[in-house]
Every structure is written in C-alpha cells, then in structure tokens.
Write a structure and sequence with these properties.
Blueprint: E1 2-9, H1 13-23, E2 29-32, E3 47-49, H2 51-56, E4 62-66, E5 68-72, E6 78-82, E7 88-91, H3 93-106, E8 110-112, E9 116-123, E10 126-133, E11 136-147, H4 154-158, E12 166-177, E13 185-189, E14 200-206, E15 209-216, H5 223-231, H6 234-239, E16 243-255, E17 262-263, E18 266-268, H7 284-303, H8 309-312, H9 314-338, H10 342-352, H11 355-364, H12 374-380, H13 385-395
Parallel strand pairs: 1-2, 1-11, 2-8, 5-13, 11-18
Antiparallel strand pairs: 3-7, 4-7, 5-6, 9-10, 10-11, 12-15, 12-16, 13-14, 14-15, 17-18
The structure holds flavin-adenine dinucleotide (FAD).
C-alpha cells in the first residue's frame, strides 16, 4: 500500500495550489481527482481579482480584463462604476485550473486522475483512503489529509465537520455573442424577481463572448426559470442581440464563514471549508490565500511529526487574522441585503446615484474586500443608514 506524507483530495484551484506548495518543499504528495480532466465540468463565472495572480506568481488563463461595472436595479436604474485601471480578470477556468495542477505535478506530486476517493478514515494515527478508479479499488495511507474536494466534501463528511450555513444555487451559460458591447464592463442585476437572495451577471469574456448567469438563495431552487427570465431582460437583450448558448454552467456555492476546519491529521481548504466571499460568491481568491496558510502549517506539522488538531489549529487562526473580519462583515451585509424588498433596493440606488459616491466606489471598490468601503460610502451617503441603521453602525 502506497504511503504519502500528504494526500490532497480534489484538484481544483485550492487542491492544486496546496499540492504544489507542499510538493515543492519536498513532501511526498498524492493529489486525487475524480474527473479524468482538470477544470471540467466548469462550475464558475470565472471573475477573479488581480491578487489571485500575485499568489500564483503567473497570469495564466486570462481572457479579459475588467475596469468597471454597471449595476442594474429591478426597474433598471443603472449605477455606472468605473476605474481607470483593471480591477478584475475573466479567466478560462479549465486553463487556469490546469496551470495550477501542472505546477503541482512539476513539483513532484503524484496526480491520480479519474480517481474518486470513496472512503476516508483515521486508524492508528494514520489517514486511510480508498479510491475507486475505473471500478477498481485501491488503498492509500498518509500522515495528513487535506480536503480540497469542494461542496459536499467526503473529507469533511467523514470527520463530522459542520455543513455550510447556506448554499446558493447557480445557473448560467457560456455564450457566443455577435453584438458589440463594452468588454471592459460587467453587468450586475439585482432584485427579488431577477435573482432572489443574490444577483445575476453578464461577464464579457472578450470580443464575441460572454457569460450570463445568476445565483439564488438556497430556498429558491428553480434557478433555470430565473435564467430564462434573465435572457428576456431589456439590458441583456440589448447587449446580446444575437446570442448563441454554447454550454450551460451550473453549480452550488457554500456561504458562511467557519473556523472549524481542522482535526487530527485533517485540514479543509477552499469550498469544503466554506472559504467563499459572502457578497460575491467568489471562492478562488480565498481558497488560494487559505491554501498558502494551510500548506505552511502542514509543512511545519509534518516536519515536527505533530499533525494533531492542536498543531494544525494555527491554520484557521492565520486565515482568521487575515480575512476573518472582512468575512464576518460581508456576511452581516449579506443578511441586510436579504432583508431588502425591491422598493428598498430602488431607494438605495437613488441614494447611491451620486457622482461622488460612484467615483469613490470606482476608486476604492475591491472585489475581495468589499466591506472596507462601507464606512466611506456611508459617510458620503448617510441616508443609507435607514435600511439597517444599528447593524450598519456596528460594522463601521
Ligand atoms: C455558478 C458559479 C459561479 C461562480 N463564479 C465564481 C467567480 O466568478 N469567481 C470566483 O472566484 N468563484 C466563483 N465561483 C466559486 C468557485 O467556482 C469555487 O469557489 C472554487 O471552484 C472553489 O475551488 P476549490 O478548489 O475549493 O473546489 P472545486 O473547484 O470545487 O474543486 C474540488 C475538486 O474536488 C474534486 N472532488 C470532489 N470530490 C472528490 C472525491 N471524492 N474524490 C476525488 N475528487 C473529488 C472535484 O471533482 C473538483 O475537481 C462560482 C461558483 C459557481 C457555482
């Protein structure tokens, strides 16, 4: 039976990155991925901040750069937010994931493709897994397991980690577009009839392409119905006059920060650990950032031969110190958003449609740390307090 220092389950961005970081420090790493191909099926809109590439040290898989957003209210009031420099990139998710996993393989990791981890347990201080590949079962052991296996993670389930507080449902499509529209802008649509509990997006992937999609809160299951509605939206129709749907994109997103992500010989990273931004549903940046902390702590623990929960707890502490406050605030802001009716949203848009406020958002808006802007926006637009005065005040 093959024994690894570390088994990483899931070769998404989080798993590929953790495997690469540990492999390049000389650890014997086994990376297990149930699909035969990395990065597919695609379950993502592919919008990431530039920080993602700073973490990875390269800029692979970039299709387009984004400088601003047009945010649409339910009645189609538009907040036009723009910046002079790129704020985000649109990626080809399959190429992006592949480049991360190639790094892992180059640093010496064993990549097991088409290999579904079916069983995970702890026995005599070691981790035991059983994979199933083309119907054949094989067992492996390791000193440490890192669950980067997304929502529904077998690693999280096997060790009784808590379920996410909330799960969003997503539905979208990769489109071929024959109309000219400004490819430096994303369109965001909010409203309870458009995407209840979240928002919809139109993201240009470059000349001739766009991703249209939305997420809804978990109790609004019929996301396809909302997607069909979105296709008939006036602004969508004017941008995508002659649109052809190439492929559909579906998936679910766990929301709700949690600190409970380690136990003896076990770590969770990425979606399996709910490391997702509550306001945007983006998980790539947080998964990579947290993956860096996880790999550092794992390396120390393996070196000192102490993979106890106590020793691994440093990992969630580092994540918490870095992004804990932001995630807590963002989750609270999300709760306020969930309480808004469409008429409140319209009123909010009227307040925000002020040149100074929009220019502030354009300059200081940050898709990874959106809550940081709350205080400055409220200073310029104090009338927003009326929607959730005490909660908002507690955030600033
Ligand atoms: C509709 C939609 C739009 C999104 N848009 C964005 C966006 O624009 N920007 C952004 O940052 N994020 C976005 N996200 C979120 C983003 O896709 C995730 O946060 C990100 O993929 C998480 O990375 P991960 O590595 O943790 O998990 P994943 O990417 O989910 O990777 C987990 C991997 O584990 C594998 N796996 C699972 N179980 C097993 C098993 N038992 N054995 C072996 N392998 C297994 C899976 O096959 C998968 O490859 C979106 C999500 C959805 C659903």
């Amino acid at each position: 039976m093959k024994h690894y220092d570390v088994i990483v389950v899931g070769a998404g961005p989080a798993g590929g990155h953790v495997a690469h970081l540990l492999g390049s420090q000389g650890f014997d790493v086994g990376l297990f991925e149930e699909h035969n191909e990395i990065g597919r099926p695609i379950q993502c809109a592919g919008l990431v901040s530039l920080r993602v590439f700073d973490i990875l040290g390269n800029k692979k898989g970039v299709l387009n750069e984004i400088k601003g957003a047009k945010v649409h209210s339910p009645s189609d009031q538009i907040l036009d937010i723009h910046s002079n420099s790129p704020k985000a990139c649109v990626i080809d998710r399959a190429e992006f994931d592949n480049s991360i996993v190639i790094n892992a393989v180059d640093s010496g990791c064993d990549l097991h493709l088409g290999s579904k981890v079916k069983e995970v347990k702890r026995k005599n201080g070691k981790i035991h897994i059983q994979e199933s590949k083309k119907g054949k079962k094989e067992d492996f052991t390791a000193n440490l397991i890192v669950g980067c296996d997304g929502l529904g993670s077998i690693v999280a389930r096997s060790f009784g980690f808590p379920k996410p507080k909330e799960v969003l449902s997503g539905f979208g499509a990769e489109c071929i577009v024959n109309t000219d529209f400004d490819i430096e802008y994303v369109d965001i649509f909010v409203g309870n009839k458009i995407a209840p509990g979240f928002f919809a997006w139109l993201i240009p992937t470059g000349e001739g392409g766009a991703r249209l999609g939305l997420c809804t809160a978990h109790d609004k299951k019929n996301t396809r119905h909302y997607f069909e509605n979105l296709l008939t939206h006036k602004a969508v129709r004017s941008r995508l006059k002659d649109v052809k749907i190439e492929t559909y994109i579906t998936g679910a997103i766990p929301i709700g920060p949690t600190k409970n992500i380690v136990s003896d010989g076990v770590m969770l990273v990425g979606d399996s650990a709910c490391q997702v931004k509550p306001l945007s549903g983006g998980g790539i940046y947080l998964g990579l950032l947290s993956g860096g902390y996880a790999a550092n702590v794992a390396a120390g623990a393996l070196e000192y031969e102490d993979v106890s929960e106590k020793s691994l707890r440093k990992y969630p502490q580092l994540v918490q110190a870095d992004v804990g406050k932001e995630l807590k605030r963002a989750f609270q802001l999300r709760k306020i958003y969930l309480g808004l009716k469409d008429k409140h949203i319209e009123e909010g848009f009227k307040i925000l449609a002020d040149k100074k406020v929009l220019s502030l958002i354009g300059k200081r808006g940050d898709i990874d740390y959106p809550s940081g802007l709350t205080k400055a926006v409220l200073k310029k637009a104090p009338r927003l307090m009326k929607f959730a005065g005490p909660v908002l005040k507690s955030l600033i």
